[in-house]
Amino acid sequence: MKWLHERILILPLALLVLILAAPAQAEENPAELIKQSIDAVYEKLRANEARAQEDPDFVIGVIEEEILPGVDVNGMARLVLARHWRDASSEQQNRFAEAFKNTLLQAYGVQLADHLDKDVRVIERRSRQDERMAVVATEVVMGSGQSNIQVNYRLRPVNGEWKVFDVEAEGLSFVGNFRTRFNEEINRDGLEALIERLEDGDEALIEDAVGDVTPDNGAGDR
Question: How many angstroms separate the CA atoms of 96 and 196, rounded?
């Protein structure tokens, strides 16, 4: 079912939209940060749409040029591994964070070029924030008679800057979904085996997690 596959892909793609985002000071408006980030990413890729469609390395290069300044990569990695993070060595923690990020980029980064026709709207009336966390509500306009997709970005201050630590699309948590999938892998084969598979670029690990549409919205350690 092509329409369902496309909607599932919105979850990792929604996170990748922020990869080119400039970090924002904690006193800045998170909703405005998200809006500016989305606009900046799409503007850059749309300006080179033909090349983006034909040259996957170009898209990855654009992403890597300003790598993840608006995303709390280490915090997200810690939440994904949950209790396994505490059992991991510092080396394993760093290797997992780096390998997870790189595999995600390779699996879905180039697919941003296939979604340049989508419009993304920030829904400020559904967004909220306090000094500890912000939730920015958006919707992806799918077109072609399809219903829009609701995407929420969760941010928290990290060293005085707002950074994304989870994305929810249609109630599906990025962090929660990968935590469930990777926990199964670790329980079966161990953390080191999971890290090595990611370091080898095993995109099936990422695709299987995204293909599991069972929601798990909690983002805290378990």
Answer: 9
pLDDT score for 192: 97
Going from N- to C-terminal start, the domains of the chain cover 2-207
pTM above 0.70, yes or no: yes
| CATH superfamily ID and name for 2-207 | Tgt2/MlaC (3.10.450.710)
* Residue 167, strand partner residues: 153
Q: What span, in angstroms and rounded, lies between the C-alpha atoms of 108 and 138?
A: 20
SS3 state of residue 89: coil
Separation between Cα atoms, residue 139 and residue 171, nearest integer Å: 12
CA–CA separation, 4 and 153 (whole Å): 21
DSSP string, 107-124: HHGGGGGGGTT-EEEE-G
d(CA 199, CA 206): 12
Is 103 within 8 Å of 206 (Cβ atoms)? yes
11 neighbors 166 (Cβ within 8 angstroms): no
CA angle 112-113-116, nearest 5°?
A: 85
Q: Taking 60 as the threshold, does the pLDDT of residue 3 lie above it? A: no
Map residue 164 onto helix, strand or coil.
Answer: strand
The pLDDT of residue 210: 67
